[in-house]
Amino acid sequence: MTISRADCLALDADDPLRHFRDEFVLPDGTVYLVGNSLGALSRTAAAATARVVAEEWGGQLVGGWNASGWFDLPLTTGDRLAPLIGAGPGQVVVGDTTSIAIVKAVSAALRLRPERRVIVSDTANFPTDRYVVQGLAGSLGGYEIRDIDGPDALDAALSDDVACVLLSEVDYRTGARLDTAEVTARVRGAGALMIWDLCHSAGAYQVDVAEADFAVGCTYKYLNGGPGAPAFLYANPRHHADAESILTGWHGHAAPFAFEPAYRPAEGVRRFSVGTPHVLSFAPLNASLDIWERVDMAQIRAKSVALTSLFIDLVEESCAPYGLELVSPRDPERRGSQVSFRHPDGYPVMRALIDRGVHGDFRAPDLLRFGFAPLYIGFADVHDAATALAEVLGKELWRDERYRRRLAVT
Ligand SMILES: *Cc1c(COP(=O)(O)O)cnc(C)c1O
């Protein structure tokens, strides 16, 4: 390879984010390129969680709701997360899952545009985004889902009966990144509301929700909140007085402990809370946010571009004869922090690669997907991953029968 492993080690030595790697637990011999699916464990997460269990739950019992601020965790954690997506205090609420956050955002958008009956979604949207929209349209009745094939088809879809548009900033399969400001302006210009799914953006670079109406995302990918960590929902302040989701639970009530018979929405973004927050799941997330508060997002983006560009270069150089096709945009401006290649035998190729310590994931039908979390992935990792991939393909190691059997989670 034109860039040697020693060159990569030199790049690592010069990396201003290098020290963050020591704040994460990564098993020896593992190149972890799946931080876009489940972020790595921060070194402080276990102790932080144990403290919540032993001191708060064990020591305070039900008093923890007041004494340890459990009741306000969705908002206090939202305020800590807000800067990562370009939002301000009181604009983000944390809780539930991304799927449920989509239910809330889309249902609120539909209520804000009652005379409009079309929901625009993209065929490339993540399945749960599509399923939620289908479920809502089906159960509310009288709605049409208008599927587009990519942002080029957006203008033609934006008739004056479109209530809202739901898109992902970064495509979970290809890593293609949209220009959120430009798309949001077009959607709002047509009188519709814009809802962004930021699952593959938050923590990958500095997001800017700007004029968006709503945004949702998960915290267990680049933000390292841990398996099942709560999701976030951003609501633009212009909607805080009027927006109401279909999920009107007591934690979104103006006075939950008045136990009133009828629902009244809380002031501000709290109205998007539903039920009791998953207190224990907030502990590792807040431990991770302690790290994120010290991160320079411009450095994150610069390193992400360098890592993904180097990976593309090295793979194309060393795997040229083996039928890999780059499906991620070559222009780093149009790319998130992942790189995907197509290969007809993608599944066994990925299994063989994982057996050699290089963890990526496989997305049906034929994509090898590699995520680069700049906080803890280095340039030598990129070199090791490209070298292992070239070996798996060059020696056809993936033809081994045991790599063909599908596991439940790919
Ligand atoms: C990961 C991901 C989700 C996950 O939704 P959950 O409800 O947390 O399972 C949703 N949307 C996108 C685009 C994702 O990448």
Structure description:
- It is a single chain.
- A 7-stranded mixed sheet has the order 4-10-9-8-7-5-6, with helices on both faces.
- It is α/β, with parallel strands linked by helices.
- 46% of the residues are buried.
- Helix 5 packs across helix 6 and helix 10 (297-318) runs parallel beside helix 12.
- Helix 6 (127-140) links the parallel strand 5 and strand 6.
- It has helices spanning 5-13, 45-60, 64-67, 73-81, 98-112, 127-140, 154-157, 180-189, 279-292, 297-318, 346-355, 379-394, and strands spanning 24-25, 31-32, 41-42, 92-94, 118-122, 144-148, 162-168, 193-197, 214-217, 232-235, 325-326, 338-342, 358-359, 361-363, 367-371.
- The longest helix has 22 residues, at 297-318.
- It is globular and about 70 Å long.
- It has 12 helices and 15 strands.
Q: What is the 3D form?
A: globular
Summed over residues and divided by their number, the pLDDT gives a mean of 97
Q: Enumerate the strands of the largest sheet in spatial order, edge to edge or round the barrel.
A: 4-10-9-8-7-5-6
Radius of gyration (CA) equals 22 Å
**Proportion in helices:** 25-40%
**Each distinct ligand:** pyridoxal-5'-phosphate
Counting DSSP E segments of at least 2 residues, the number of strands comes to: 15
Distance between the termini: 30 Å
Order of helices and strands: HEEEHHHEHEHEHEHEEEHHEEHEEEH
Q: Which structural class fits the helix and strand makeup? A: alpha/beta
Low-confidence stretches: none
Q: What proportion strand?
A: 5-15%
The main sheet comes to: 7 strands, mixed
Number of helices: 12
